[in-house]
Specification:
Blueprint (H helix, E strand, L loop, with lengths): L4 E5 L3 H12 L3 E5 L3 H10 L16 E3 L2 H5 L4 E4 L3 H8 L11 E4 L12 H9 L6 E5 L4 H5 L4 E6 L3 H11 L4 E6 L2 H23 L4 H21 L10 H12 L4 H10 L4 H8 L5 H14 L5 H11 L7 H6 L9
Parallel strand pairs: 1-2, 1-4, 2-3, 4-5, 5-6, 7-8
Antiparallel strand pairs: 6-7
Helix pairs in contact: 4-5, 8-9, 8-10, 8-11, 8-13, 8-14, 9-10, 11-12, 13-14
The chain binds nicotinamide-adenine-dinucleotide (NAD) and SN-glycerol-3-phosphate.
């Protein structure tokens, strides 16, 4: 037993899965959700059939729509809701967050209105000091972890002690956390890989093969690294689990909503149609814009992200994506 009490805000696929990880690691866990039926399913049936069909959840998990009750005496406040809804959802809950609690962001996005990373949004909205905020990011497809398949992740916080505490709270025989103090790098990797996964999905939807996929992943990592370094990240983060690791998982797996949505676009669906058939939260759709804004603000070129924004939001036909990228002036490899 860790002896820690965790409140998980969000009963979607990752919130529910991470709550199960915390419970398996020995935490006392309660979830907060908006819907009575989902909360009832988790507490009474030990299932979340809507988001994780067929998965049996730890019997001790309980969920409620009453945020005050869920947050009572929480040591950890874990946030797993769509990035663009985070600030508005969290601000009304701030008064119920116990003094001294550590906040944990599981989200992989960048706020559209402010270009802020989710750790910044969580700290501001909940009124938690930044050195008490951690982020968790890595090759972490929820469904596989809910099935207790082995994986690793990165727990990042500017204060190593904060990262260690959260890592201790979520370490199980199938989920291995590594700590890192490079919050900027870890968060940018998590948000930007979704944009690269959209590009890979589009390519695969057009019937393109593994050479194209490998090219987009590799050059995608280069542009994520360029952005991260310009914003003060540590170069070692990018080839790690939060960078290359998550790119590989997200760009290769049909479980990824970003990859799936991209492939629907590649097959000719409109953005609205692709969002509707994909379901769940494909963060890259909106964060592609804020990530590009961040890049522009520091003078960094992100041609793949730019092309994804052009397809998703500016009407560039999917068939013009590859010629646009390959038609750029030749240059030396590297950053
Ligand atoms: N699913 C994964 O495999 C996975 C893995 C790692 C990280 N993430 C990240 O976790 C975050 C959450 O993703 P998810 O997969 O759990 O999404 P999801 O779509 O499965 O669930 C989202 C949850 O948030 C709730 N929600 C939506 N809008 C809300 C609002 N305005 N207020 C309160 N609740 C709201 C929904 O009801 C649902 O419970 C995203 O940033 C995602 O990138 C997901
Ligand atoms: O389903 P996606 O595309 O949001 O990806 C899920 C996770 O971020 C993979 O690590």
């Amino acid at each position: 037993m860790t002896g820690l009490r965790a409140a998980v805000l969000g009963t979607g696929s990752w919130g529910t899965t991470f709550a199960a990880v915390l419970a398996d690691a020995g935490c006392d866990v309660a979830l907060w959700g908006r819907r009575d039926d989902v909360c009832h399913d988790i507490t009474v049936e030990h299932r979340n059939e809507e988001y994780l069909p067929g998965i049996e959840l730890p019997a001790g998990l309980r969920a409620s729509t009453d945020a005050e009750e869920v947050l009572d005496a929480a040591d950890l406040v874990v946030v797993a809701i769509p990035s663009q809804s985070a600030r508005a959802t969290l601000e009304p809950l701030a008064d119920h967050v116990p003094a001294g609690a550590i906040a944990v962001s599981l989200m992989k996005g960048v706020e559209l209105t402010s270009d802020r990373r989710m750790s910044q949004v969580v700290a501001e909205a909940l009124g938690v000091a930044y050195d008490r905020v951690a982020v968790v990011s890595g090759p972490n497809l929820a469904r596989e972890i809910a099935e207790r398949q082995p994986t690793a992740t990165v727990v990042a916080a500017v204060e190593e002690g904060t990262a260690q505490l959260v890592a201790g709270a979520c370490a199980t025989g199938y989920f291995r956390p590594y700590t890192n103090t490079d919050v900027v790098g870890v968060e940018l990797c998590g948000a930007a890989k979704n944009v690269i996964a959209l590009a890979v999905g589009i390519a695969q939807g057009r019937g393109l093969g593994y050479n194209t996929m490998a090219t987009v992943i590799t050059r995608g990592l280069v542009e994520i690294t360029r952005l991260g370094l310009a914003l003060g990240a540590d170069a070692e983060t990018f080839p790690g689990l939060a960078g290359m690791g998550d790119l590989m998982a997200t760009c290769a797996s049909p479980l990824s909503r970003n990859h799936t949505l991209g492939s629907h676009l590649g097959q000719g669906l409109t953005l609205e149609q692709a969002i509707a058939v994909t379901g769940g939260t494909a963060e890259g759709v909106k964060s592609s814009r804020s990530i590009l804004e961040l890049a522009t603000s520091v003078g960094v070129e992100m041609p793949i992200a730019e092309a994804v924004v052009a397809v998703l939001h500016e009407g560039l036909p999917v068939d013009e994506l590859a010629p646009r990228l390959l038609g750029r002036p030749h240059r030396a490899e590297g950053l």
